[in-house]
Amino acid sequence: MVLESALGEEVIATNLKQFLLVLSVSLSVATLPQVFSWFRQIPYTLLLVIVGLGLAFVDVRLVTLSPELILFIFLPPLLFEAAWNLKWSELKQDLVPICLYAVLGVVISIVGVAIALNQLAGLSLTTALLIGASLSATDPVSVTALFRELGVGSRLVTLMEGESLFNDGMAVVAFSFLVALPLGKVEFGLQPILVQLFTVVGIGVAVGSLIGFGISYLTQRFDLPMVEQSLTLVSAYGTYLIIEDLGGSGVIGVVTTGLILGNFGSRIGMNPRTRIIVSEFWEFLAFFVNSIVFLLIGDQIRFASLGENLQIIAITVGAMILMRAIAIYILSNLSVKITKSEISLADQTILWWGGLRGSVAIALALSVPTLLIEREKIIATVFGVVLFTLLAQGLTIKPLLQKLNLLGNAPLREQYLELVARYVALERVLQHLQTDQRPGIDPEFYRYQEQLIKGEITDLQEKIDKLQVEYPNLRSFTTEQFRGELLAIEADTYAEFVKSGRLNKQLSPMLQDVLQYGGETEG
After folding, report:
1. Which of 83, 126, 360, 492 has its CA 20 to 30 A from that of 134?
2. CB-based contact 171:100 (threshold 8 Å)
3. DSSP single-letter state for residue 70
4. Is there a contact between 270 and 219 (Cβ–Cβ < 8 Å)?
5. From CA 83, how far away is CA 304, in angstroms rounded?
6. What is the dihedral sign for C-alpha 363, 368, 369, 370?
7. What is the Cα–Cα distance from 57 to 63, expressed in whole angstroms?
8. Measured between alpha carbons, how far is 225 from 230 in angstroms, rounded to an integer?
9. pTM of the model
10. E strands along 104-193, which residues?
11. Angstrom distance (rounded) from CA 283 to CA 273
């Protein structure tokens, strides 16, 4: 008994050391762009993969990566964070193309890759289908992070994130069915496939909705930011585990819960200050988890295994890219016919090339049962394809955005906001200087400082006016920013009344409709 206890403590200590080592390396990589400006050209997640590859090349293995670790520890927070921040108002506008990409797109990808591997590489149909299913889930984390950094249009971000959230669930469902098929656990046929699909998706949506709405109404009863933050964390993991135990799709369940809490629960059950606290917590958690996952993806690569399966990997990459193009361009045109909402050719091209594969694909490949003879070949192929998408596609997405003129004006807005912030700060300094006349200070000092500050304010005003003349869109951006500040002041005032006990419930915003109406009238 003592021996078992000692061994258990040693295992825990070893795992803790490995975890701290991974975390230290990840955080060190995060500082590289701040120290060396050249690294800022590479998305952070891809930089982690490259560093992981370097460690794998010299055969330094940080930790043994297991599929359970990704699926049960890493996947729920990543899914929940993305769903929490996805606006339902934007999502529902593009729900048709997103569903087409996530459902039919997954089917096209699996079938196309499987046929290519079966006919060109000579793999068995079972192995080919499992590889296709593993790689049918897109994981554009690094791409969407780059989009936000560069100020790319919000619709493109919504399309990519929405597709990724929903097709993760479809890919897991398809993979689970195909894994069970050779083991004799399910029958092949249209009816069994549809029954299982509706069962796992239905359980996921039903339980996810129940948990999401339940927590939403529960948080209406109190205003405790730390408790509400903890509830969102428990809901992410709890939803996944409960639904998986019930035989449903934990991925679909977590996405459903995240969408409800982010778009409904946080509005009716959290005051604005709490929502900010929870959002910042999930932003940190997503950064934390992504840092570990992408570093380990690179670190787990076995170069010898990749070399042995190079031909299969090349065929898979070609088939996957071709099937992605077919799915995006055909389904986008189908969506336009249904909704009459145009998706530009440039946006379709980015959706095609930005369909990277990542942690979900690797987790699915690693979860292939050891009973299957070609398991190692599946894992090597999936790792190779994921590596190609992250490096080749991930590093070329920015030049492609530039080529298609899709880069936003984020740097310009940042420059403009810096000038505005300095202007407001100096105005406040000047106001303080004019009202706080202290004894013992020479009046001439006040006059001299006042002239200096007024001169700086004038210079800043000229720079702001020049930018507004050169870029007229900044005026609407400024108006929207100021409108947001007014709404925040109203919401913070209600929160203060609730906190002090002068109100028993959080009031819904009144200015939102008033200011919107005023803007429309003015227009």
Report:
1. 83
2. no
3. I
4. yes
5. 38
6. negative
7. 15
8. 9
9. 0.74
10. none
11. 15
DSSP state at residue 68: H
Give the residue-averaged pLDDT of 345-357.
90
In angstroms, the Cα distances linking 43 to 148, 164, 318, 400 are: 11, 19, 24, 15
| H, E, C per residue of 264-330 | HHHHHCCCHHHHHHHHHHHHHHHHHHHHHHHHHHHHCCCHHHHHHCHHHHHHHHHHHHHHHHHHHHH
Instruction: List, as own/partner pairs, every contact residues 36-40 make where C-beta atoms lie below 8 angstroms and the sequence separation is at least 24, other chains included.
Output: none
CATH classification of 42-403, choosing from 1.10.10.2840, 1.20.1530.20, 3.40.220.10, 3.20.20.80?
A: 1.20.1530.20
DSSP label of 261: I
Contact 121, 339 (CB under 8 A): no
**Both structure tokens of 227:** 């408790």
- Determine the pLDDT at residue 120: 92
Q: Which of 321-325, 490-494, 498-502 has the lowest mean pLDDT?
A: 498-502
CA atoms within 13 A on the CB side of 459: 8
Residue 93 has pLDDT above 60, yes or no: yes
The residue whose two tokens read 């740097």 is: 411
How far are the Cα atoms of 202, 203, 207 from residue 246, in angstroms, in the given order? 11, 8, 10
The Cα 298–Cα 164 span in angstroms is 21
Q: Please report the DSSP string for 431-481 in residue order.
A: HHHHH---TTS-HHHHHHHHHHHHHHHHHHHHHHHHHHHH-THHHHHHHHH
In 3D, which of 303, 329, 300 has the Cα closest to residue 22? 300
Does residue 71 contact residue 363 with C-beta atoms inside 8 Å? yes
CA nearest to 169, candidates 231, 248, 258: 248
Indicate if the pLDDT at residue 513 is higher than 70: no
- pLDDT tens digit sequence for 319-348: 999 999 999 999 999 999 998 888 889 889
Tell me how far apart the alpha carbons of residues 322 and 220 are, in angstroms, rounded to a whole number.
49
- Give the Cα separation of 516 and 509 in Å (integer): 12
Burial of 404 (0-12, 13-18, 19+ CB in 10 A): middle
Q: How far apart are CA 279 and CA 228, in angstroms?
A: 11
Query: Side chain identity at 7, as an amino acid letter?
Result: L
Report yes or no: 474 and 468 within 8 Å, Cβ to Cβ: yes
Q: Percent helix, strand, coil in the chain (nearest 5)?
A: 80, 0, 20
What token pair was written down for 83? Answer: 């769903």
Burial of 221 (0-12, 13-18, 19+ CB in 10 A): exposed
The confidence score (pLDDT) of residue 517 equals 44
CB 55: neighbour CB atoms within 10 A? 18
189: left (phi over 0), alpha (psi -120 to 50) or beta: left
Residue type, 331: L
pLDDT, tens digit, for every residue of 220-232? Answer: 887 788 888 899 9
